[in-house]
Amino acid sequence: METKVYALTGNPEEDREAISLAGQVIRSGQLAAIPTETVYGLAGDALNPGSASRIYEAKGRPSDNPLIVHIAEIQALEKIARDISPKALELARRFWPGPLTMIFPKKDVVPLETTGGLDTVAVRMPAHEAALGVIRAAGGYVAAPSANRSGRPSCTTAEHVLEDLNGKIGLILDGGPVGIGLESTIVDLTGRLPCLLRPGFISLKQLEEVLGEVETDPAVKGQLAPEQRPKAPGMKYRHYAPRGRLTVVSGTPEAVAGLVNRLTEEALSRGENPAVLASSETAGLYRCKNVLEVGSRARESEIAHSLFAMLRRADELEADPIFAEEFDTPQLGGAVMNRLMKAAGFHRIKASE
Ligand code: TXA
Ligand code: MG
């Protein structure tokens, strides 16, 4: 299949044709990759079981890993979700459109193929004009996982989507680099207490302002016992991972640089091709020739924005091993470290003074 890329201008008038084409493609049961404010999504009709199967196939994703249903107005929630509490509506009013996904018991119109066999459904309204246009043009309910091949870092540009899905889907809408760069925050509202399943741009504190106490799923921190099942099935799969072995190194900047310099030099002497993921403040401390700068600690949105691109860059360089600093910045640090630790298979070492 030939994959066509349509560039969006950001002007709704000029983009109307491309958006309506994507809508038709989705209505007909096929797939289109679309930009959102978080990451690119691989969009199909959420109410068509065949579309869900096509999504799993194109991504190479296990079909027990449920999809997020994207809507374009709050009223659309009622048709697909049950037990929508006043607090859930308050969250929707406060954070939608935006990078928040809520999980509800599902209604029968949502096929089990879309929810990976679960009787719950994840729903979000993206804050992106073109995405909202496509959802409306597609009939109002669009299932869209991140548009990467399963296991790879999520796509923050249309080029990443093409890298992963060229020949597997018919259409990509290119809206340029996304705004946030990390997937939405996911909160499960089906239990006794609300539970954070994936940290993101909307923080735990912001959720608690509306919901009161919110639990955090142990899988978020990699603290799941082997016999426990994560609440978000996606959390059990190796994720975001570059091909090289990734290790997170914690400690003071000097101690981290000291240890990483020693480890990268040892790797070089074994004939390997090491790389380092560093902040702009500390990039100069490393002697390794492959230093991938993810951005400034003073502007943490920069780090969130370029993390996935830098993990992909490590693959382009065929880097192995890879060492990453910790990016435990105040607002987005939790979300960034969750992705980075998953990419590292939770492998972290401490550099002592
Ligand atoms: O920002 C985002 O959320 C992006 C953009 C495209 O909207 N989408 C995204 O989808 O990240 P995906 O499929 O890559 O990640 C969805 C996660 C998976 O870990 C999945 O297991 C979980 O949400 N999930 C979906 N439905 C669920 C459900 N009913 N119960 C528990 N977890 C669910
Ligand atoms: Mg994903």
Keywords:
353 residues, 2 domains, eleven-stranded mixed sheet, five-stranded parallel sheet, DHBP synthase, alpha/beta, binds threonylcarbamoyladenylate, Rossmann fold, 10 helices, binds magnesium ion
Brief write-up:
This protein is an alpha/beta fold.
Plain-language structure description:
The protein is of the alpha/beta class and 353 residues long. The protein has two domains: 4-220, DHBP synthase (Alpha-Beta Complex), CATH 3.90.870.10; 246-350, Rossmann fold (3-Layer(aba) Sandwich), CATH 3.40.50.11030. Helix content is 31%, strand content 18%. An eleven-stranded mixed beta sheet has the order 1-8-2-3-7-4-6-5-9-10-11, with helices on both faces. A five-stranded parallel beta sheet has the order 14-13-15-12-16, sandwiched between helices. α1 (12-27) crosses α5 and α9 runs parallel beside α10. The longest helix has 17 residues, at 253-269. The N and C termini lie far apart (55 Å). It binds threonylcarbamoyladenylate and magnesium ion (MG). Threonylcarbamoyladenylate (TXA) is lined by residues 36, 38-39, 41, 65-68, 99, 101, 103, 115, 118, 120-122, 124, 126, 144-146, 183-184, 186, 197, 231-235. Threonylcarbamoyladenylate binds next to β5 and β6.
